[in-house]
Structure formats: structure tokens, C-alpha cells
Amino acid sequence: MKRLYIVTAGESHGKGLTAVIEGFISGLPLEAEDINRELKRRQGGYGRSSRMQMEEDRAEFTAGIYKGITTGNPIAIFISNRDWREAGPVACPRPGHADLAGATKYDLNDIRPVIERASARETTARVAAGAVARRFLAEFGIAIHSHTISIGGVETSPQDDVKPIDWQQVESSPLRCADARAEKEMIAAIDAARVDGDTLGGVFEVVAHGVPVGLGSYAHWERRLDGIIAQAVMSIQGVKGVDIGSGFALSKVRGSQTHDAIVPNIDVDTGKPGGLPWRRLSNRAGGIEGGISNGEPLVVRAVIKPIATLAAPLPSIDLHSGEAIKAHYERSDISVVPAAGVVAEAMLAIALAEACLDKFGGDSLRETMANYHNYLGNISLWQ
Ligand SMILES: Cc1cc2nc3c(=O)[nH]c(=O)nc-3n(C[C@H](O)[C@H](O)[C@H](O)COP(=O)(O)O)c2cc1C
Q1: CA distance between the termini of the chain
Q2: What is the chain's pLDDT, residue by residue, as a tens digit (383 residues)?
């Protein structure tokens, strides 16, 4: 059974969203601001709908925190919807959404309940839970970032390995893009799609720095960290592909250009805590080998499809009459690649928090961190 269990509840135009986190440690200082900061990041991005200006997502802890510190009890977080209203019935399914299959599966004669729950508004609750995980991971020195790689076929220039991404610049960019030239073209592409009543998808990358070697396991398929991360990111609404490290690009290169040479870490004696006696000359594996983190940054990329709600809708049918009509349309984003990156940060944080609890155990922060430092202290060459 999983150590950390996260449930979300709530509808797009319901009273609000709830995240419940069960199995978490006690002793972690946690403020609403830790959550609100992440909720705000999720709401950003050029190409979003007016809904994002209307909502100002704020978290309220309703359980599991006492005097600003986690207690070990289940944590409950509530985020209210400003756009709370009874939205009207829908009979015409939108291709690319859960509408048709969802109404059929649950034997509904109105698509509205499907739209309300399948909506990515649910990711607000995921980001709230992810913010708790993120706060926990900060204790290990793990930091997670995301940036946009492409939108509507406009790609950033290949990343120069020696020049690390300026994450501050990414945070201030409207598309969370590190390449100003590409960003300009992406904005133009979004504007053009908007004029045509169309939408765009793209690729984002999520990077976790400071991940210790040894999370996950090769011993059983369910414990492989790459599989766990792929599931977590693939579960985001609209994500259609996930790769780790060089991923799909590996189909075009040889083994010698695929793997990451291991060399002695001559800096290990300089006293940097957590320093390993070895290092890698590259990180094409994206920080995971054999389903286990190898101490290098985790690098995950994913493609999110063009938004399925089109202002110029595709053909569909009225489920009452069977008549051919255009699909239902309601206010929608044009492109959500940067926001999807922020949601993926949350999902990666949840996956890594679970992996840390699995590896280091403990019921309180103090116990977990003592186990962690003990483990790090035991890593050495076999001398
Ligand atoms: C942050 C975020 C915002 C989204 N906003 C919209 C939206 O405004 N309109 C829409 O049709 N789809 C939106 N989507 C995508 C849909 O929720 C998703 O395509 C749909 O639920 C069907 O799921 P699937 O694409 O995984 O099959 C969004 C996705 C994310 C991650």
C-alpha cells in the first residue's frame, strides 16, 4: 500500500476544490502562503481564458495543521471557486473531451456532471497537494522547476548544456519560456490560433534538482521511479506523451551517445554535504537508471495536446435527437502549456515525496531527516 494517499474532490463551477493528504509526517511548518504561491503560478500563462483573471485561488487548511505545523493527521485544503454557479445542461459532446465516453459510462442524460469533474480546474487541488509535497522536499534540498519547450510547433533553441536555465527569468516570462526569441513567436502563434477559433498544444520540461541517489527500485515494476513519474505526469488532463531524459530522441542515436559516463568526483573532499564519490559527464538518462534515481537532476518532458474546446467547434451530435450539430462550446483556454508545466511540477513533487517517504520512512520530520542523513553519511567507495 502507498504511504502517501492524495484525494481531490470538487467541480469546475462547484463551491470549491478540496485536496486531502493522508500519510504525511508531523513537524513540517506549513503556511497557506506556501500553497497560494503555487496556485498563483498555475493560474498564469499567455493564452488562458478570462476565468483565470476571475479566480484568485487561495488555500484554507481545514484539517491536519496545528499552530502552523503538520500534526500527522490527514491534511485537508479547501480552495473556493469564485465562478460558483449552476451551469446549464449539455447534450452535445465535445470531441477530445471525456463528454461522450463519460456520460455513457455513468449512464447520465446530461454531460454537465462530466464536464464539471473532467475539467482541469481539478488541477488546482493537485497543485495545492503538490505544494505540501514541495515544502517537504525542500527539507532534502530538492527544488522543482518547469519551462516551456515548444508551443504550436515553435520550438526553443537547443539548450546549451553549460548554460543553466535562468529560473527567475522563466518565472517572469508570460509563457514560462527561457528563450525570448521563441517566446515572441509562440505568442504570435497563440494570437493567430485565437483569431481562427483554434487552439495549440506543446511541450514542457520539468526538472528536479537535489534528488538523492536511491529513490525507487529496480526490484518490482510498481516501484520503478520512472514508471511512477510517467503515470503522475500522464494523468494530467491533456497530456499525451511523457519522456524522461533524452527520451524519444534516443531512437536516433547510438548507445555511446545515450549513456552517461561515470568518473571520480575529485571535488568530493571539498566538504560539500551530500557530495558523491563519483559524478557523470552528462545526464542523458534524466536522473534515473534502472528505475532508481542516480543523483543527477531528474528531467521529465511531456506533450500536452491542443485544447479540445474549440471556438470554431468540430462536428458532433445532439444526444437527445441524434441530429448532427456542432460541438458544445464554453469559455476556454487557447493554450495551457506553461500552466501544465506547473501542474507537472506538483505531480513530480507528489511522486518524489512518496518516494522519499518510502525510502526514509518516519512519522515525524525529525525521524525522516535523521534517516536521510544517516543514509547519505553511509555512501562511500568500498574502501
Ligand atoms: C492547466 C490546464 C488547463 C486546461 N484548460 C482547458 C480549457 O480551458 N479547455 C479545454 O477544453 N481543455 C483544457 N484543458 C485540457 C482538458 O482538461 C483535457 O484535454 C480534457 O479533460 C480531456 O482529457 P485528455 O485530453 O487527457 O483526454 C486544460 C488542461 C490543463 C492541464
Answers
A1: 37
A2: 789 999 999 999 999 999 999 999 999 999 999 999 999 999 988 988 776 677 789 999 999 999 999 999 999 999 999 888 888 999 999 999 999 999 999 999 999 999 999 999 999 999 999 999 999 999 999 999 999 999 999 999 987 655 789 999 999 999 999 999 999 999 999 999 999 999 999 999 999 999 999 999 999 999 999 999 999 999 999 999 999 999 999 999 999 999 999 999 876 555 554 478 999 999 999 999 999 999 999 999 999 999 999 999 999 999 999 999 999 898 889 999 999 999 999 999 999 999 999 999 999 999 999 999 999 999 999 97
| Cβ(336) – ligand 1 distance below 6 Å | yes
The answer, as to whether pTM is greater than 0.90, is yes
Superfamily of segment(s) 5-377? Chorismate synthase AroC (3.60.150.10)
Mutating to test ligand 1, I would choose from 237, 330, 343 the residue with most ligand atoms within 8 A of its C-beta, which is 237
Q: Whose CA is nearest to atom 13 of ligand 1?
A: 307
Ordered by start, the domain boundaries in the chain are: 5-377
Nearest residue (by CA) to ligand 1, atom 30, is 120
3-state SS, residue 377? helix
**Does any ligand 1 atom lie closer than 6 A to the CB of residue 173?**
no
Ligand 1 atom at minimum distance from 309 CA: 11
The rounded distance, in Å, linking the Cα atoms of 102 and 333 is 21
For the record, the C-alpha cell of 3 comes out as 504511504
Torsion of CA 259, 264, 269, 275, to 10 degrees: 20
Set of cell numbers at residue 305: 495536446
Atom of ligand 1 nearest to the CA of 118: 21
Taking alpha carbons only, the member of 33, 92, 102, 89 closest to residue 61 is 33
Nearest-angstrom CA–CA distance, 156 and 271:
37
Q: What share of the chain is helix, strand, coil (3-state, %, to 5)?
A: 35, 20, 45
Question: CB of 52 within 8 A of CB of 121?
Answer: no
Give CA–CA dist 106/46, Å, rounded.
Answer: 35
Q: Which residue has the cell 441530429?
A: 323
